[in-house]
Amino acid sequence: MIVSLIEFYLSQAVTLEEATRKFEVNAHLYKGFDGLIRKTYLVSEDGKTVAGLYFWNSRAAAEKMYNSEWRERVPKLYGVEPRITWYESPMSIENEPMKAA
Q1: For residue 100, what pLDDT is reported?
Q2: Cβ neighbourhood burial of 93 (10 Å; 0-12, 13-18, 19+)
Q3: Cα–Cα 20 to 30 A to 57, which of 5, 38, 73, 92?
Q4: Residue 93 lies in a domain
């Protein structure tokens, strides 16, 4: 499994409610996306970083999401360029199912 962490280091802190409203703008684009196992939205405690943690079947599936349209759209939403970090995930433990948006 491939995991990508997309982080936005904001120039101004946001509240959890403000971040949630931003997340809701594009959440529908990820539902049912081929190869995406799960996406988890994140907000740092200080509100200065928002992020998405994506679990993918493959790097190729992720690259289909992070296309030129995505790379143009998301910086406009958050006001900064994203930082993308890639990880290999050899295993995962899930004690409780996550709530879907």
Answers
A1: 66
A2: exposed
A3: 73
A4: no
Average pLDDT over residues 9-23: 95
Query: Using one digit for the tens of pLDDT, what is the confidence trace for 51-75?
Result: 999 999 999 999 999 999 999 988 9
Identity at 29, one-letter amino acid code: L
The answer to whether position 19 is within a domain reads: yes
Which residue, chain included where needed, has tokens 């491939």? 2
Question: Is residue 63 assigned to a domain?
Answer: yes
The reply to whether the predicted model has a pTM over 0.90 is no
Count CB atoms within 10 A of the CB of residue 65.
19
Q: What is the pLDDT of residue 98?
A: 72
How many domains does one find in the chain? 1
